[in-house]
Amino acid sequence: MDRAELANFLRTRRQALRPEDVGLPRTRRRRTAGLRREEVAALSSMSTDYYSRIEQQRGPRPSEQMLASLARGLRLTLDERDHLFRLAGYAAPGRVSRADHINPGMMRIFDRMGDTPAQVMNQLGETLIQNRLAVALIGDQTGHTGLARALPYRWFTDPDSRRLFPEEDRAGHSRTVVAQLRAAHARESRDPRAEALVEALHEASPEFTAIWGEHPVQGPYCAPKRIEHPQVGALELHGQGLLDPDQSQTLVVFTAAPGSESYEKLQFLSVLGDQLV
Asked: What secondary structure does DSSP assign to 82-117, as a single string?
């Protein structure tokens, strides 16, 4: 690991970012160029002390997981992410599936979704990042590990994953989940994770196997989605998606018709935020 070059690279990328680039308000009293260390640490889901030690060429070698978090927090491109890994003494992550690194352009759009529930998902249904309002609406979906990171796996193996949806809608959701996974499996035929997910679901869920055998296909239209929120009650929402074809990721934004009861409930969630989670 080249500690000096790693520290310098992180510092230059931190100083190149403006607060508004990452959805933070700009204040008049900013003595340093770019972002503060504590801001990068928060964006990267790590402590300020841990991040500061890296920039100061101290502390242990960052893990690959920490480097991936830094790459996301600093809005690095794929090439910059690969360079970061090499400076830390790791091989660059494989690009057969670009599932976990979010394109900086997508992140800039996500950063501006502060008043709307939004999250970025990859082709396997793994939620890579959520904003505060998305967590308040559907819960934190980023903390799962292993196969449970994928929404299809949770949907067919964990009954609690269905609790937000009316019982009469769940069969339709099952078909949608399988259709989306089938499309991803066809696109990402070289990704061993997609094959492993499908195999695990065949073993765990007869329901999944039955629907998979029917070859369901879903178009781009997003039908209204009904959610039974435990605090604010029933909502009818649309889940619009912005696709990044290069990264095989989708920015999903949940909206309600202006003036509707669901719209008012989203406004209520926006005020209370994660206090309702």
From this structure: HHHHHHTT-PPPP-S---SSPPHHHHHHHHT-TTS-
Amino acid at site 91? A
Measure Cα distances from 58 to 49, 118, 148, 268 in Å: 11, 36, 35, 45
Which residue shows structure tokens 């480097």?
67
Name every residue whose Cβ is closer than 8 Å to that of residue 63 and which is 6 or more positions away in sequence: none
Q: Which tokens go with 22?
A: 């990452």
Dist. CA 35–CA 58, nearest whole Å:
20
Q: Which alpha helices (H) appear in the chain, and where do they start and end?
A: 3-16, 37-43, 48-55, 64-73, 78-87, 104-111, 132-138, 151-157, 170-187, 192-204, 206-212, 261-272
Tell me which amino acid residue 231 is: Q
Cβ count near 169 (within 10 Å): 14
> What digits encode the pLDDT tens for the residues 116-166?
999 999 888 999 999 999 999 999 999 898 999 999 999 999 999 999 999
d(C-alpha 135, C-alpha 241), whole Å: 17
Which distant-in-sequence residues (6+ apart) come within 8 Å of 106 by Cβ? Answer: 120, 242, 244, 247, 249, 251
Closest of 247, 105, 128 to residue 188, by C-alpha: 247
Alpha-carbon Rg for the chain, nearest whole angstrom, is: 20
Q: What distance separates the 2 farthest-apart alpha carbons in the chain?
A: 61
> And the tokens for 167?
């019982």
pTM score, two decimals?
0.70
